[in-house]
Amino acid sequence: MKKLTCLQFFAALVFATMAQAADSLPSWNDGLAKQSIIAFVAKTTTHGSPDFVPLAERIATFDNDGCLWAEQPMYFQAFFIFDRIVALAPQHPEWKTQEPFDSVLKGDVTAALAGGERALLEMAMATHAGMTTVEFAKIVDDWITTARHPVTKRLYAEMVYQPMIEVLAYLRDNGFKTYIVSGGGIEFMRPWAERVYGIPSEQVIGSSIKTKVEMRDGQPVLVRLPEINFIDDKEGKVIGINQHIGRRPIAAFGNSDGDLQMLQWTAAGSGPRFCLYVHHTDGEREWAYDRTSHIGKLDKGLDEAVAKGWTVADMKRDWKIVFRHQ
Amino acid sequence: MKKLTCLQFFAALVFATMAQAADSLPSWNDGLAKQSIIAFVAKTTTHGSPDFVPLAERIATFDNDGCLWAEQPMYFQAFFIFDRIVALAPQHPEWKTQEPFDSVLKGDVTAALAGGERALLEMAMATHAGMTTVEFAKIVDDWITTARHPVTKRLYAEMVYQPMIEVLAYLRDNGFKTYIVSGGGIEFMRPWAERVYGIPSEQVIGSSIKTKVEMRDGQPVLVRLPEINFIDDKEGKVIGINQHIGRRPIAAFGNSDGDLQMLQWTAAGSGPRFCLYVHHTDGEREWAYDRTSHIGKLDKGLDEAVAKGWTVADMKRDWKIVFRHQ
């Protein structure tokens, strides 16, 4: 058998991997974004490649809102909060004369959110605490399988980005552990993350409230408390990754400035690195927003992506479909 | 082929598994403890068994100090703290006139610990904070590969219990994910847990201090702060398991009352459950202590183990060897 030069070997490798990956990323248009993903996986997973990464170090982290599923016109967890307020209202007659609950019950979300973060936090605590972890998981699971998005009328779990689902599976097929690292609630994502994304509970990192152990009928239960434990956003994503994983990802995916620190942290490691920003450019199939958006603002991150040569996935240009139902 | 009755099937299964497991747990004497481990693994991992547990749910949690490695005459992390104080003393001339540091530098550990938890915490913060996470990992790694136990003169990583190493490997060979859930520092265990126990960083849960992100030379680093973040002991073990894993273990291993809540939490789930207490009964090969010990006190837990029928591994009776070097 003829010996190949190193360059021939690598060219053959990328070609073979491209051919194989063509089936793995069918919702991606051919282009730089798709090629960069495939090239990164090829060089990090092929024995003999100078950039080969051992299995244990193949860690990839993904933001959730706006990266794996949509986040417009509002974070989906906010809709969950509003739906819970409506569901719990009969047990809280006092809410009828108490903002921001009163406005939610009247269907006036804008007024409810006029109180800013404080109001949202108050509503989050009123709906996310006071029950056991098992009870809360059941509430989330019931909601995710029945509630529908106000604009598309689809189940929220149908509002996930098909091209990103393919990236998750493609990475896992190549020995990567895929993690969610989200500003959203850790216990809000876990009940459905495995079913929808193939990501098990222990690979979900998010914001959390405190819990305490109580004995009920001689058995311990974990009760959710109305007190912030951890905010997994911006610098918090780096802290959360270190706390949960204890090693630096080699690949990170985000869509907003809130993910910038996670991407910087990932890029700052030695050896091969991959950072990708999903850029919301498709106002027809999804929503178009970036530098001035109140949700998922992507401004500094976009500049840094260009400066550092990170991959930017332009939803309009790079994705054949956004959602599976399209 | 002759059809087997259900009982015949299960008997054949346990027999076959026993034969196979005989090689997996060679440091365990035949007896109830060993049999209970093998029977649990057999029934939870064999398709067709009424107690079969899917791969994703095979979570086993292990305390570290006194369960996977020794904890006498003091928690090994305390020796690390003292060694660090000696190493750092040249940069801290003020310690010569400042308790508890002065006593440590004079080699008087008893006097250093006279200040109780407050003194220990002060020493922990002085030695565990003020550097980046990468720097701290390097410090721990240097220590664990060179420092020696004051009584046995062995490396601390040689003070691990060989029978428990076998249980870890046996469970993993049968599809379990093995976790450490320790009151010890999460970042103190991670640098060597994979090498010594085969447990990767992301499966280590422990106590932690806070960290913050700083930019140095345009790159983010995580700096360790002298502030408690989480104490992973007693109820904290349940909270830590829920936070990191997000599902209930089906097997839990401990050795003290500090592990009781973890075992209760594990036992309280539905389906097959396994709880094991390591009982320190061997004053010759290791140390003998339980109900009145200041370290690794096992009192309520021992009563509950008997009452609930949990497995108690009697080190003297059940273990052929304690350490590999015996």
Description:
The structure is a homodimer of 326-residue chains. A seven-stranded mixed beta sheet of chain A has the order 4-3-2-1-5-6-7, with helices on both faces. In chain A, helix 1 crosses helix 2 and helix 3 crosses helix 6. Chain A has 13 helices and seven strands. The first copy, chain A, is α/β, with parallel strands linked by helices and 326 residues long. The model of chain A has no long low-confidence stretch (mean pLDDT 94).
Give me the secondary-structure category of chain A. alpha/beta
> Hey, which two chains have the biggest interface?
A-B, 32 and 32 residues
Proportion of residues in β-strands of chain A: 15-25%
Biggest pleated-sheet summary of chain A:
7 strands, mixed
Strands across the major sheet of chain A, in which order?
4-3-2-1-5-6-7
Q: Determine the fraction of residues in helical runs of chain A and give it as a percent range.
A: 40-55%
Give the tally of β-strands of chain A: 7
Radius of gyration of chain A: 21 Å
| Poorly predicted segments of chain A | none
> Overall pLDDT of chain A, averaged?
94
Number of helices of chain A: 13
Give the helices and strands of chain A as they follow along the chain. HHEHHHHHHEHEEHEHEHEH
What is the chains' assembly state? homodimer
End-to-end CA span of chain A: 48 Å
Principal-axes shape call of chain A:
globular
SSE inventory with pairings:
The structure is a homodimer of 326-residue chains.
Chain A: H1 6-24, H2 32-45, E1 59-62, H3 76-88, H4 101-105, H5 109-112, H6 116-128, H7 133-144, H8 162-173, E2 177-185, H9 186-197, E3 204-216, E4 219-230, H10 235-244, E5 251-254, H11 260-267, E6 274-279, H12 300-308, E7 311-314, H13 315-318
Helix pairs in contact in A: 1-2, 3-6, 7-9
